Amino acid sequence: MKITKVTSHVLQYDMPELLGYSQQYYDKRTAHLVEVETDEGITGWGECFGPGNVAIANKAIVERVIQPLVLGENPLNRDVLWHKVYNLLRDHGQKGMPMQSLSGVDIALWDIAGKVAGLPLHMMIGGKHRDDIPVYGYGMMLRPEPVYELAKRFEDEAASIKGMGFAATKMKIGLGPKDDVKLAEAVRRGVGDEFPFMADANHCYTTSDAFFVGHALEELDAYWFEEPIAPEDLDGYRELRAGLKVNISGGEAEFNRWGWRNLLEARALSIAQPEVCALGGISEYLRVLALCHAHFTPVINHVWGSAIAVATNMHLLAAMPPMPGGLFPWEPMLEFDTTDNKFRDELLTEPLDIQGQVKKNNGRVTIPGGAGNGVEPDRDFIKRYTIN
Ligand SMILES: [Mg+2]
């Protein structure tokens, strides 16, 4: 079996409304799918993390840098190919876009391996530790409007996400410490006293501002405080973890086993959030997961992107061993974006219907059962939204 072609499909559409997080507002949704074809008619699908122009640049890395290194190779040699590509790109990018690009190719190779074996991805890894997983719905994105309006909107949106049946919810913050506390108070009002909510700062604070907001989140009984400060600031993370009772989460901007080793050895995180479509694909995710567990750090995957990314993460979450285990073990959750995303809802010939399942099954979804990722993208849909 030989790899005959590697194609990046960059999809994009105009969002119905302007949304934002602490770093920017955006009005376009992008997805970057990777298709790996073989001489035996089996095709694998993967996805690279990276919005907008990053996806367009990553397409060039996938097709013009990685493709020549893997053409003619046996796709089942996925770990050999991972190291061939990584070792040759080491001088040019141990983090960031080269790793995002390699991730999409690696995920597609795992899809091929599953299809060859006739086994779903979670069985290729070692089996399911759980048949279904709880889902948290994130929303409450920033909008360019006054804080009192945004707070009212967040209160209503939080109540609505809870009403949809999700197991927990997550909000964005990033207006500045005092206004962010007002937003978090609004979300707590919206969901009531018991329901878990989390706050994601996308690394916009100084350490002292993060302490101010973190103390308020403790008072509001938030479950976690995500990416409070810059991912490079490992000392800051360690200080926040030692000084705050709220869980400190992060890791979506970290890459491969060497980057994660530093993060974990710094004792920077209460909850690790690896992004499989960025850190190096499934091959590297499994090594990072083992490192997290070696440091007794629980993992809740970061999930972003199309239905390919969502399905991949469902398999990974099903195959994640309990850590430390027990009669009522700590459980991971699936992250789900409740804002407009056609690439998740309409890409597949048979949609995952996460929201429908959540509503019917008490906030939980079952794991796809087909071979590989277990999902099939609709080629007409891909053609309609391709911009490259
Ligand atoms: Mg985040």
In short:
The chain has helices at residues 52-70, 78-89, 97-117, 121-125, 147-163, 177-191, 207-219, 234-243, 256-265, 276-279, 281-294, 307-318, 342-345, 354-360, 379-385, and strands spanning 3-21, 24-38, 43-48, 132-138, 168-172, 197-200, 224-226, 247-250, 271-272, 334-337, 364-366.
Key words describing this protein structure:
three-stranded antiparallel β-sheet; 2 domains; 11 strands; alpha/beta; binds magnesium ion; eight-stranded mixed β-sheet; 388 residues; 19% strand; TIM Barrel; 44% helix; Enolase-like, domain 1
How does this structure look, described?
The structure is a single chain. With about 400 residues, the chain is α/β, with parallel strands linked by helices. The chain folds into 2 domains: about 5-120, Enolase-like, domain 1, CATH 3.30.390; about 125-365, Enolase-like C-terminal domain (TIM Barrel), CATH 3.20.20.120. The chain has 15 helices and 11 strands. The protein has helices at about 50-70, 80-90, 95-115, 120-125, 145-165, 175-190, 205-220, 235-245, 255-265, 275-280, 280-295, 305-320, 340-345, 355-360, 380-385; strands at about 5-20, 25-40, 45-50, 130-140, 170, 195-200, 225, 245-250, 270, 335, 365. The strands form 2 sheets. Strands 4, 5, 6, 7, 8, 9, 10 and 11 form an 8-stranded mixed beta sheet that branches. Strands 1-2-3 form a 3-stranded antiparallel beta sheet. The radius of gyration is 20 Å and the shape is globular. The two termini are about 30 Å apart. The mean pLDDT is about 95. Magnesium ion binds next to loops.
